[in-house]
Specification:
The chain has 258 residues and is an all-alpha fold. It has helices at 3-24, 36-49, 56-87, 89-102, 111-118, 122-146, 150-158, 163-198, 206-215, 219-247, 249-257.
């Protein structure tokens, strides 16, 4: 294990020890913050017996489905829009004023409209998650295109490079590092928005578990739900980093050669 891994493991161990001391010696009331034993019992309950109408795996898979679908829709819509705005000054002039107005609106502010348009089902939740992930993907893709030297773009135009070939072979590869930065931020935004999206009209999901545990005054189950969200977020971010490393292998090799 690398030194950085050992440091992270030591930090985790220190936090665990602090948790045991704080709860074990009664510095914090069990009704406010669960002990490791309470957390373990809550985890065993939802894994083996179920809570809030389902097992942990059922809630986790449903939340994962919502995040992935909202994230994918954000990629399909946000990345092309960012490429277009970065490439075309006319597109930027036409779209950017509207985007600048929409961009500061918090994703949670879209919940009432999402429910009004799409009802209380999963579609409304996916819409809210999509918006949260959409904005970072557009901004970073746009920034990535603008880092490309204008001489490169002008040379491609002078040589008569077909638009499709220009996008695939020049525009996307050059902007790819910033695009993946935007995707990481988009994925994080999707997970941070998930719980709030699932608080309204949900019958399953980790957000629903957190909501029910809050109503039941069940700190141990609240922490189980939070940890589940954190682990799923970590796993999906790790997978995205693997995809990024594979897609940008040429960039890593070039950096090493330099």
């Amino acid at each position: 294990m690398k030194r950085r891994g050992w440091i992270g493991l030591a930090t985790f161990g220190a936090l665990l020890a602090l948790w045991i001391v704080v709860t074990g010696y009664g510095f914090v009331s069990p009704g406010r913050f669960p002990s490791p034993k309470d957390f373990a019992l809550s985890a065993a309950q939802i894994v083996l017996q179920g809570y809030a109408g389902g097992l942990l795996i059922t809630h986790a898979l449903h939340s994962l489905f919502l995040v992935i679908l909202g994230f994918l829709v954000a990629i399909v819509t946000g990345v092309p829009l960012g490429l277009w705005m970065g490439w075309s000054r006319r597109a930027e002039a036409a779209i950017n004023p509207v985007f600048l107005i929409v961009r500061p609106i918090p994703p949670l502010a879209w919940i009432p409209l999402a429910i009004l348009w799409l009802g209380l089902g999963d579609a409304a939740k996916i819409m809210v998650i999509w918006f949260a992930a959409f904005v970072p993907s557009v901004i970073n893709t746009f920034a990535g295109v603008r880092t490309i030297e204008r001489s490169t773009i002008e040379a491609a135009r002078m040589l008569g490079t077909p638009p499709r070939r220009f996008i695939v072979e020049i525009l996307v590869p050059a902007a790819a590092p910033m695009i993946f930065t935007g995707l990481r931020l988009s994925l994080q935004a999707a997970w941070t928005t998930l719980v709030a999206a699932e608080l309204v009209g949900a019958l399953v999901g980790l957000g629903f578990v957190l909501n029910m545990a809050q109503q039941d005054i069940y700190p141990g189950m609240i922490m189980v739900g939070m940890v589940a969200v954190g682990l799923l977020g970590f796993a999906t971010t790790f997978l995205l980093s693997r995809v990024e490393r594979a897609a940008l292998a040429w960039n890593v090799a070039a950096g090493g050669a330099g």
